[in-house]
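Researcher: If only I could read backbone structure tokens as easily as an amino acid sequence. Walk me, if you will, through where the backbone shape changes along the chain. I have put the entry right below:
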Amino acid sequence: MSGTGDFRPSLVRPALDGLAAYEPGRPIEDVQRELGLERVVKLASNEGPFGPFPQALEALARAAPELNRYPDGGAYRLRAALAERHGVPPAQVALGAGADGVIGSLCQATLDPGDEVVCGWPSFPSYVIDPRKLGATVRTVPLREGRYDLEAMLEAITARTKLAFVSYPNNPTGTITSRGELDAYFARVPERVLTVLDQAYFEYLDDPEYVDGIEAYVREGRQVMVLRTFSKIYGLAGLRIGYGVGPEEIVSAILIVRRAFDLNHAGQVAALASLDDPAEVERRRRLNATERGTIESALRAAGFDVAGPAVANFVYAGTGEDSTPLFEALLRLGVIVRPLHGFGAPEAIRVTVGAPAENAIFAEALAAVCATSEAPAQ
């Protein structure tokens, strides 16, 4: 059809108007090709700096000849192992393509246009992007002293609120709320609201005051979904395996909306093989804590405002101005960090803790950049 009077409606849902896709960190290969660099250190995405555990690599080698077959869509063995590990029935375990995949499925399973979601801000962008894809409204609550303000989140809950996201520790600031604040929140949050307690960095913490949300809240019958992932300390980010533990009704709904074969066979066997090496988890945790100090020291020495105490595998630093020039200057020296415009913090960067040699390269590059520019605003 043609003519000035014809009207062709858009096939794209109005909920997507003005909504930007999540922007991942730049791949090393792209930066090398664009800038002609032989050496590039990627500290932009919160990946672990070490590869899969040895037993996971062995499991992957055994699984390789079977990759012509579809994976187990229900991930029976992995769900059963995780359920036993956490002392819950398998019906309370939902798997996804990373913890982020569980967030997406959870939103699909619970949210209709006009429903509301509450989260702290700045925080993980999927808490905002995924609900808005579905036409839900997101109420963002400013952080208080760099941490989630759970009291203010409670005040932001309305009769239309279905989900409340609590990033614990918060990405991108790397900070946590106290056990007392969490307990007080769960004592007051309405039962009709599902709280999503995101513990993607759980294995990096050894603070006795840090709460195991599955033990403290899920197993006590709270209306909560606790998220975990194999993408961080286990070194399986490229295989995309995460999970949530929560109410059976919610897990059943997630199974309905999640695509049947999202969880590939390689990811399932590698995750299963990674569960029983506490010594390697502890080794990586300790090294991360030491090297996190290297990153923090380099940022403070350069005059940046560092959020803290940081407890995960990354460090947040306020730049006092648009962080893009700093990001680009470091990029030209072969170091990729994360400017945080998409996280709601355009005047900040996030630096992931890498291997010792990578962190030394970052510190050297940062010092060089700052030596040729004015000190950042405080």
Q: What stands out?
A: The mean pLDDT is 93. Residues 120 and 221 are 24 Å apart (CA to CA).
